[in-house]
């Protein structure tokens, strides 16, 4: 691997930094709302699955 001088390294870092696309405020808010909604939906889903499995296990243990 070729050695790079500190100056060349800094130029490469600056060139890569210019390529970054920073999201707008609207994109950030929209994404945050979407993540919040998906988190709530998944929490409710897993709560339901957990309750269902709990009921099944309880029914099986009471049947013994």
TrEMBL record:
List the Pfam families: SecE
Which Gene Ontology BP annotations are present?
intracellular protein transmembrane transport; protein secretion; protein targeting; protein transport by the Sec complex
- What Gene3D superfamilies does the entry give? Preprotein translocase secy subunit
Q: Report how it sits in the membrane.
A: Single-pass membrane protein
Compartment(s) of residence = Cell membrane; Membrane
Taking the first listed entry, what is the main subcellular location of this protein, grouped into a coarse class? Answer: membrane
Record InterPro entries = SecE_bac, SecE_sf, Translocase_SecE/Sec61-g
The record's section on PROSITE patterns has: SECE_SEC61G (PS01067)
Q: Name one GO molecular function term.
A: protein transmembrane transporter activity
UniProt KW keywords: Cell membrane, Membrane, Protein transport, Translocation, Transmembrane, Transmembrane helix, Transport
One GO CC annotation: plasma membrane
Which residue windows are transmembrane per the record?
A: 32-61
Family assignment from sequence similarity: Belongs to the SecE/SEC61-gamma family.
Relate the assembly described in the record: Component of the Sec protein translocase complex. Heterotrimer consisting of SecY, SecE and SecG subunits. The heterotrimers can form oligomers, although 1 heterotrimer is thought to be able to translocate proteins. Interacts with the ribosome. Interacts with SecDF, and other proteins may be involved. Interacts with SecA.
This molecule's function is given as: Essential subunit of the Sec protein translocation channel SecYEG. Clamps together the 2 halves of SecY. May contact the channel plug during translocation.
Q: Which HAMAP family match?
A: SecE
Q: What is this protein called?
A: Protein translocase subunit SecE
Q: What is the lineage of its organism?
A: Bacteria, Pseudomonadati, Pseudomonadota, Alphaproteobacteria, Sphingomonadales
